[in-house]
Design a protein that fits this description.
Blueprint lengths: L1 E8 L3 E4 L2 E2 L4 H11 L3 E5 H5 L9 E5 L11 E3 L2 H7 L6 E3 L3 H7 L5 E7 L7 E2 L8 E9 L9 E8 L1
Parallel strand pairs: 1-7, 1-8, 4-5, 4-7, 5-6
Antiparallel strand pairs: 2-3, 2-9, 8-11, 10-11
Amino acid sequence: MITLIAAVAENNALGKDNQLLWHLPDDFKRFKNVTSGHYIIMGRKTFESFPKPLPNRTHIIITRQKKYPSENCIVVDSLQKAIAICPPTEELFIIGGGEIYNQSIEIADKLDITRVHNTFDADTFFPEIDLNKWKLTSAEFHSKDEKHQFDFTFQSYLKK
């Protein structure tokens, strides 16, 4: 199963200048719980936005750069190669960025979205979710509070 996992604003914004636009600790906890022990596929810029590789996950980085230096990560030059490396019985998670989401949304089986209820100025966006192709299977709303500046909803979609 291929799952796209992302925190996405109402205007589909993901980030700006290779940075997230919000800080939602409950979203980070959920991301960690959902992806731990699995393969995570990402573009080079997404990988470089982390201070270090995320623990307890197999990182696959997609880049056009030849001989990209990466300790303890798998480096490939295409989404197809990244998917081919993963065991066929394994759920794998595509974690960004925008270009990788655009390449993979048509082949994904599931979308695991944290919908941030605000709009933002951004330079990276998640593709539009076509409700003719995707069915919302769960939604869990969370109000903003002292730790969360914005309301957000955890949403799961399955391909129809």
